[in-house]
């Protein structure tokens, strides 16, 4: 058994970053991420489930939603699977947080606070030149001059981080190394550089979990492993279907169709498996991207 919890599970990620008792970990991670841009001294967790303004709108459920001591709002998401229109989904999440700052009455003058979105991705966009870290700003296209600092998405493609422990040069890289490799670590590195990693070691030690938390973690871990198995099976099935189609209509067209069918079947299989394991409907929706009505009928 691994010594430390898997941070890619829903339980593991929120255990590290989503608790009041461990918010110093989130503050340290965000300060490492935003070094040279701003310093966060304190934050407050907000309700991560935001109800719609109108009956037909979708509920917005964030992994972690908080506000800093100076009013900026920060959304932190761990995303394990690629989704259609993921970039647009990220912008929708941030835009929703901006919209909710509106106050009723004629005296409100649109004095909104900045909204940051930190999206840790366990996949790649598919862009040819994607980087480990993509910082998005609103700027003039010709001059590059900043237009507004109120919308600030940051995408971190974890598969592109390949540095070893010895090669990590700053706190941001140390955090990414630990998150990416935590489940396979035998010891917690970087404790000599930052005391916060000692705190992290205490939090993520599997043996230190209470019996109830151990059950919650194991359920979350099983859901995550089921997801990985479904992904692998769907990928293979999609490739096989694509190959067969390719023999008849051309390899490129067939492979693409096979991948599309595989992705759809993957989402349905994963939703069924997670539902059988007792995963919350909101988690299934967030993981698979399926509508509530579809999940209810499975």
Trace the largest sheet across and list its strands. Answer: 1-4-5-6-10-7
Q: How many whole angstroms does the radius of gyration measure?
A: 21 Å
| N-to-C span | 33 Å
- Tell me the overall shape: globular
By DSSP (H or I, 4+ residues per run), the number of helices equals 9
SSE pattern? HHEEEEEHEEEEEHHHHHH
Overall pLDDT:
84
User: Would you count the extended β strands for me?
Assistant: 10
Residues in β-strands, percent: 5-15%
Quaternary structure state of the chains depicted: single chain
Total domains? 2
What are the low-pLDDT stretches, counting only 5+ consecutive residues below 50?
Answer: none
What are the main properties of this structure?
298 residues; alpha+beta; 6-stranded mixed β-sheet; two-stranded antiparallel ribbon; 9 helices
Structure write-up:
- The chain is of the alpha+beta class.
- It folds into two domains: 10-208, no CATH class; 212-297.
- It is 44% helix and 14% strand.
- Helix 6 runs antiparallel to helix 7 (251-276) and helix 7 packs antiparallel against helix 8.
- The protein is globular.
- The two termini are 33 Å apart.
Ordered list of secondary-structure elements with their pairings:
Blueprint: H1 10-17, H2 23-33, E1 43-45, E2 49-50, E3 60-61, E4 64-68, E5 73-79, H3 86-99, E6 115-121, E7 133-135, E8 138-139, E9 146-148, E10 151-157, H4 171-181, H5 196-204, H6 211-249, H7 251-276, H8 281-288, H9 292-297
Parallel strand pairs: 5-6, 6-10
Antiparallel strand pairs: 1-4, 2-3, 4-5, 7-10, 8-9
Helix pairs in contact: 6-7, 7-8
